[in-house]
Amino acid sequence: MCGIVGIIGRDAVAADIVDALKRLEYRGYDSAGVATVEDGKLDRRRAEGKLKNLEARLAEAPLVGRLGIGHTRWATHGPPTETNAHPHMSGDVSVVHNGIIENFRTLKDELIADGIAFDTDTDTEVVAHLITRERHAGADPITSVHNTLQRLEGAFALAIVFAGEDNLMIGARNGPPLAVGHGSGEMYLGSDAVALAPFTDTITYLDDGDWVVLTRDSIDVDAEGNAVERAMTKSVASALMVDKGNHRHFMLKEIYEQPEVISHTLSHYADFAKGEVRDLGLDFSSISRVTISACGTAYYAGMVAKYWFERHARLPVDVDVASEMRYREAPMEEGGLTILVSQSGETADTLAALRYAKGCGQKIASIVNVRESTIARESDTIMPILAGPEIGVASTKAFTCQLAVLAALAIAAGKQRGHITPERERELVEALAEVPRHITHILRDETPYEALAQDLSKARDVLYLGRGISYPLALEGALKLKEISYIHAEGYAAGELKHGPIALIDENVPVIVVAPDDELFDKTVSNMQEVAARGGRIIFISETDPAKAGCPLEAALSVPDCHPFVGPLVHALPVQLIAYHTAVFMGTDVDQPRNLAKSVTVE
Ligand code: M6R
Questions:
Q1: From the CB of 393, is ligand 1 less than 6 Å away?
Q2: What angle do CA 25, 367, 473 make, to 5 degrees?
Q3: Most buried pick, 113, 217, 299, 470, via CB within 10 A?
Q4: Whose CA is nearest to atom 9 of ligand 1?
Q5: Rounded to an integer, what distance in angstroms lies between the CA atom of residue 232 and that of residue 201?
Q6: Is there an atom of ligand 1 within 6 Å of 416 CB?
Q7: Residue-wise pLDDT tens digits, 186-195
Q8: 307: helix, coil or strand?
């Protein structure tokens, strides 16, 4: 998703803006730009592709203004060309925008009818022209922005600067996040606190509907025409400078961080010495069902949780793709519980699902990585996953940490509802405590994955199969492979194979089977035999002896013997490593795969 930076500095700001944009790269983007005000005049540099292209432009023709805005664009309206790259300009105004102006067509027609010519395909350009039209009608910069904001529908985070105004920047938020950074004689705007981390750790997050007027010495926030106070927080992002360390990619670094971060997360939610989960502040005893809603990988974490809650707490769970829930107008009981799962805490659909559930009178709990995020702030209960910043677009450590939190929650629910005895609780908590050790074991040897990657890289299609609680792992494996290697992959419940997908099987289709040695193992073996009988090439992920598969295997990826309760946390590793090594072998952009954004802040 687009990233926004604005700086009112003491010296030239372009280099700091690009530096901040680099920390927003993880959100995904396909062009970038910077504009500054210099000697009262606006000037900008923009470039398609990566920030290094923009840096080259700036090296050829530097910008030396002390006030400026910058942007990484993830194209929504119009292709990722230099012309469509932000900042957009009109008259003496320059604008950067994250989000979608939903009524831009109406506004554009109105402006065209007024004789205004458009340079770009973007929705954002209307904002610049609307402000300029206000200016021509005699409004001062602040009033012109205020009047323009009244006309906008949709989602936006905006940063706006003016020619002739060397000490004024205006920001506005309705949907996508916008953080205000407090400096001394300098002020900042950014899509998140990480972007601003080297400059300041004192942050004010704008609420939806807020707009802010910044000068070097003042921050004035306004909501619905009234001055409002928004809290200042100390961001921990400044202490967490993001770099790859010795790893080739952020994704690999994050895969390797899992033993540590899962331990950290688990110790927040469980007391290993006592063999108990901690009081998580949620009452499961009086509710009759739970709804979990999320997108992508977080949705698959929710699917795993359904198996845990239903089996161990005898509590029915509806798992809903967040982009669908509100449009189905799902009936929800007043007083019930909805759990939103989101790494970023900013996913537009998950936020909309939250608001829908809240509107139905549900209690809202969120499982997020970013505690200052909008989803966290709009929740009644926040359960942080404590994974640390996840930069790779493909979610890895966030997934396993989400699972860790959901597992603890399922145990708490089972306990409260009288389905988990203290002995069983101790057994499950001890099983969770063993997860980091199992993962460390898997990470000791990546060679089987490197070898398999060469084979998979030749495939056009790959199937993933799993039964029971391994079914969501099959879906997650397929998502991971397609998003970073661009190989078409599908995950199926193994039992569904014969209802259609078996028609795809031939010797060209690798079939990756997540097959823990649990009570469903024999049934999964039967499905593997159906695949083998049709010449399919089976890659077997299991802790058990590959001979038990009862059919020829292309490869066997061994995982440590673990308690079935924690199988999904352990089996996540092979599916992550398969995707990672296949993508590396194919030479794709592992951390920033094409077309994808880390934080999807538009519908
Ligand atoms: O930030 P969120 O957890 O809400 O993001 C949800 C999905 O966009 C995300 O999990 C996406 O599917 C990942 N790229 C998967 O690796």
A1: yes
A2: 80
A3: 470
A4: 296
A5: 10
A6: no
A7: 999 999 888 9
A8: helix
Element (H, E) at 296: helix 296-312
**Helix, strand or coil for residue 489?**
strand
Choose the most confident range, by mean pLDDT, from 61-70, 228-237, 369-378, 546-555: 61-70
- 183 CA → ligand 1 middle, Å: 32
Q: Is 600 in the pocket of ligand 1 (CB under 6 A)?
A: yes
pTM (2 d.p.)? 0.80
Which of 388-425 are b and which e, b meaning 16 or more Cβ less than 10 Å from the residue's Cβ? bbbbbbbbbbbbbbbbbbbbbbbbbbbbbbeebeeeeb
Nearest CA to ligand 1 atom 14: 394
Q: Is the CB of 343 under 6 A from ligand 1?
A: yes
Tokens of 323: 């982009």
Instruction: Tell me the three state secondary structure of residue 432.
Output: helix
Take atom 8 of ligand 1 and give the residue whose Cα is closest. 296
Tell me 116's DSSP state: P
Span from the CA of 433 to the centroid of ligand 1 (angstroms): 26
Decide if 598 is catalytic: yes
Q: What is the pLDDT of residues 558-569, one digit of tens each?
A: 999 999 999 999
Kindly give the residue spans of alpha helices, DSSP state H, lying in 241-295.
250-269
